[in-house]
Amino acid sequence: MSRFNYAILQPGSIKAKPNGRLIPFAEHRSTSVVLWPEGHSPSIENTILTDPCLTAEGYQHSMEVLSELGVTFAEIGYVFITHQHNDHIIRFPKGILKPAFRRFNPSDDIWSSEIRTSFYPGHSADLKSLIFHSSSGDTMCIAGDAILNEEWLRAWQYFWPNRYSQAEIIQTWKSVAAIVASSDVIIPGHGAPISVSVALIKELLSGFPAAQHSDRCEEVAQVLKNRLAELV
Ligand SMILES: [Zn+2]
Fold first, then answer.
1. Is residue 10 helix, strand or coil?
2. Overall domain count for the chain
3. Which domain holds residue 163?
4. With contact defined as beta carbons under 8 Å apart, do 20 and 160 qualify?
5. d(CA 79, ligand 1 centre) in Å
6. Percent of the chain whose predicted confidence (pLDDT) is above 70
7. pLDDT greater than 60 at residue 140
8. How many A from CA of 192 to the centre of ligand 1?
9. pLDDT value at residue 1
10. 36 C-alpha vs ligand 1 centroid, how far in Å?
11. What is the distance in A from the centroid of ligand 1 to the CA of 86?
């Protein structure tokens, strides 16, 4: 199995709370990750950057992380965008030259089959996650906004400012369950990594009946129960 090292370049954050409140002074920022194969140094040939929609603050943080790794943006060869929303596409702060990245394509010969993408629509029709194994053997899922952050996940909330349809909300719950069922660690679109634990799944199961339209996708609970049975 090929494994990957990874680092959070831009820590994700979000202004809105699941309950409808806004957090004063919070920045809306995508989570951006850099990853490269274990046993190799990061280089233009093997390094992938995800959702680099960098704010000035996020760019500063990214520069610090990259300098600890001994690389620059110019030495990152590939980019993976989870979905084409404005807050996830490639953006560098004003005045900073945007490097020319190649699009990550898992079927390119240089990648092993151990790194792949998976389609998790709902939040957006084109949403894909990046799935790989970390150096500690965890199955990692860079989930984009299929999961916004741990608080939104635990609250069974979708990004309400986007006014999703019933079908999109149901699709979101199916994607959430599929991600939780197949990952050890989830890197959400706007937050810190989430460990998939027995306690987390139990909480998700107890909260699911109150999720909007949960009566129309009861299979979601079964997917979570199956995952719980694997973990206990
Ligand atoms: Zn987003």
1. strand
2. 1
3. 4-231
4. yes
5. 17
6. 100
7. yes
8. 14
9. 54
10. 24
11. 8
Q: What is the Å distance from ligand 1's center to 159 Cα?
A: 9
208-216, long-range: CB within 8 Å, 24+ apart, which pairs?
208/156, 208/173, 210/156, 211/156, 211/173, 212/156, 212/158, 212/169, 213/166, 213/169, 213/170, 213/173, 214/156, 214/173, 216/166, 216/170
The Cα–Cα gap between 32 and 34 comes to 7
Strand (E) or helix (H) holding 182: helix 166-182
- Which of these, 2, 46, 6, lies nearest to 141 by C-alpha position? 6
Q: What is the pTM for the complete model shown?
A: 0.97
If you measure from the C-alpha of residue 198 to the centroid of ligand 1, how many angstroms do you get, rounded to a whole number? 27
The per-residue pLDDT for range 94-109, each reduced to its tens digit, is 999 989 999 999 999 8
Is the torsion defined by CA of 216, 219, 222, 226 positive or negative?
negative
For 38-87, write each residue's pLDDT tens digit.
Answer: 999 999 999 999 999 999 999 999 999 999 999 999 999 999 999 999 99
**CA 101–ligand 1 middle distance (angstroms):** 21
CATH of the domain at 74: 3.60.15.10
Taking every pair of Cα atoms in the chain, the longest distance, rounded to a whole number of angstroms, is 52
pLDDT of residue 113: 84
Query: Are 156 and 205 contacting, i.e. CB atoms less than 8 angstroms apart?
Result: no
Q: What is the pLDDT of residue 112?
A: 85
